[in-house]
Input
Amino acid sequence: MTDIADVLIVHGGTPLEGEIRVRGAKNLVPKAMVAALLGSEPSRLLGVPDIRDVRVVRGLLQLHGVTVKSGETPGELVLDPRRVESANVADIDAHAGSSRIPILFCGPLLHRLGHAFIPGLGGCDIGGRPIDFHFDVLRQFGAVIEKRADGQYLEAPKGLRGTKIRLPYPSVGSTEQVLLTAVLAEGVTELTNAAVEPEIEDLICVLQKMGAIISMDTDRTIRITGVEKLGGYKHRAIPDRLEAASWASAALATEGDIYVRGAQQRSMMTFLNTYRKVGGAFEIDDEGIRFWHPGGPLNAIALETDVHPGFQTDWQQPLVVALTQASGLSIVHETVYESRLGFTSALNQMGAHIQLYRECLGGSACRFGQRNFLHSAVVSGPTKLQGSDLVIPDLRGGFSYLIAALAAQGISRVHGISLINRGYENFLEKLRDLGANIEPPGEHGGTGGDRRGEAAAVA
Ligand code: EPZ
Output
């Protein structure tokens, strides 16, 4: 039985119209906060969103003696790493919550303290989410890792030395692991098959401001020359292109019109091309991007997710909801996460027609083709969606359920709504600003419970 306090009631059928604002990227800001740990001077980070991933990292930094204070302007943090100290293992475990970011503390803590502890990690259930690349990389720098019941203990008895690393897959987190370790390691590190997402580039900008020496070659090779010491930084985080795309998909699915203040064309170009192919309209100005449904039918498309500059996997789930309203058969091939299409079963429960396949459909063969993962989908549309009981599976799938409930006819009860706070700042307020007809937790007199709850009440 889901806690009533975590249920959002959505009265569907109202187009979302108005303006919202996105702040710094969820997938950059926590990493820039960890980077401050490497500095010998305080750092100032601007554009920080009030989301759970940021609060978790703020708490973990404070556990390690870093002072983190709000700055003079909204969304500004001042981080002072001059008194870094060991933290109590139980506290780290309790604080890490469902975030995966703690793994990125390894390099900085090994540099600052000579040891680190990483509890078992969380993160969205969209695939195995292994961290084998991370530990392989740290060992290549000279870390010694001991697996214990409560987590991994790391030491660097001979310090950390630069090395040649080739990632088996352009993993964002593993690339960040290399960057945060190599900048103070002795000598040069050469990283091939690196991830080059805009958030990675922004993290490199942060590190360069601190005094690091990092180059990115045209063949996805990143070279880092270790330095003795790093200073602080003042940096405005790139805006969240993933949140912006989620609202754009919501505009399409609800036949609405949303101005996303802060959205930037440069990091969203691939999304914008796809949006236009589906039949969405957008207008770009210096402060943001307006997304709207221009009327008429939407076009079915063949979509394949990939690493940057391909179609970002985090854009996929919200857009799939819009594809249920497109005329014809759309094909979606998810090549980054093996289980990121599971959320579609609930959409089918609402009236969508989505079939999943183990084969690599609509594009090139990927890692999952012969491994029995349902990682391709065929979406037949348009279909009328009916309100339903929905239980949020993961961050982007959860936001996709919000979009589906808003696009559907009738009432939906969305359970586990608090998970969305991990990556979408003030999303209930934003929905209200866009005219959504919703009853947030605490505003519905218990009618928000799931049907089992109602049945129990009757019995
Ligand atoms: C980051 O996750 C993002 N999260 C994800 O966004 C994003 O989808 C992903 O990068 C890809 O762009 C954050 O930045 C907090 P990966 P990360 O390492 O670093 C495999 C969202 O919704 N892999 O690039 O964990 C892995 O299983 C989230 O905002 C290994 O096999 O992703 C996956 O198949 C979801 N072993 C692929 O690489 C490893 O050690 C990509 O993972 C590491 C990864």
In short: Residues 448-459 have pLDDT under 50 and may be disordered.
